[in-house]
Amino acid sequence: MKGYLKNPSATNAAFEGGWFRTGDLAIIDEFGYVTIRDRSKDIIISGGENISTIEIEDALYEDHRILEAAVVAQRDEKWGEVPCAFVTLKSNDIVMTESEVIEFCKERLARYKCPKRVIFGALPKTSTGKIQKAQLRELLADSK
Predict the structure, then answer these.
(1) How far apart, in whole angstroms, are the C-alpha atoms of residue 21 and residue 11?
(2) What CATH number is attached to the domain comprising 52?
(3) What is the pTM of this model?
């Protein structure tokens, strides 16, 4: 990659120190395998705790009724940010409430990691099928 089209400041920031910085946060285990944990811009900082959106999404996908899930930060007066989950159910015949989703997460995650709000519906995607978290963040900002 030569850089970002017509955006030299973004190119300079991404290639600082001679390495391309993707913004992905990962770990390397004892066997040398790399596991992506999250994107740095997606980490939720709630009351001083860093929360991985991928960890919450993985917990949500354990529910057989959930087809798609995405988690983003929602502004909060007390905690700064809290998790907000966007969920698409597998079928229109399935009924699932916000409290059911939150309780499901509480069985799998520390309480501070559980979504404080759940919004049901179709998730915005790119032409390649990637969920557009930026649009979900905008939706939350507009709903205040």
Answers:
(1) 10
(2) 3.30.300.30
(3) 0.85
